[in-house]
Design brief:
The protein is an alpha/beta fold. About 35% of the residues lie in helices and about 25% in strands. It has helices at about 45-50, 90-100, 105-120, 135-150, 165-180, 190-200, 215-220, 225-240, and strands at about 5-15, 15-25, 30-35, 60-65, 65, 75-80, 155, 185-190, 200-205, 210-215. The N and C termini lie far apart (about 55 Å). The mean pLDDT is about 90.
Amino acid sequence: MSPILQLRGLQRRVGSTEILRGIDLDVMPGEVIGVIGPSGSGKSSLLRCIAGLDEIAGGSVQVEGRATRPGDGAIGMVFQQFNLWPHLSARDNVALALRLVRKMSAAAAAQQAEAALAQVGLAALAARKPAALSGGQQQRVAIARSLAMEPRVLLFDEPTAALDPELTTEVLDVIRNLAASGTTMLVVSHEMGFVAGLAHRVVFLDHGQVVQSGTPKEIFSEAAEPRIRSFLQTYLSRVAWVRL
């Protein structure tokens, strides 16, 4: 089986600052890759470069052996912020790109949008505008918007960062269901337990480089790299319950 996504020597610079320093990565069809690392390590930049949103300074991104371009539908991306049009219903938010990019008729786009909303559990709320939806529901609309374009690879950049813990669960459940259905995904998240339980493989980034790539067990339990152990200890110290 050939990789569905291939990164070779991926580089990004901003001025004289190197953001990504030659990332190589193969992702197989149906594989879920968790991307973790400290703030400023290049996680979001990696996803944005894969999606074609940030210019790369070197290297290549290929999906199914072909170079990608923004708008070709090969890559879908879900951001921290929902970025929904406030004056449009959930259905119309999802259908808009189908009409503008895919040139679908209004009726066909609406039908595909409703199917995508049903996939994330929001079929009954298709007519609601964003202001009438919770934060978790708005993020699920954003996920449906990406799914409706039928991407080959789906990217998540901290999809629960703007949500409180109660609403986080419903979004994570949607992502788990997508993983179970065989959707190829790269997920950047600070939810370490979620990443450990979801990902087939975990990539740890630091200073724009892959420090280590391995199974969740190899990263979270058996990492030999001191930088990874230090990062995980900091995380555990921050989230652990205090025993009284």
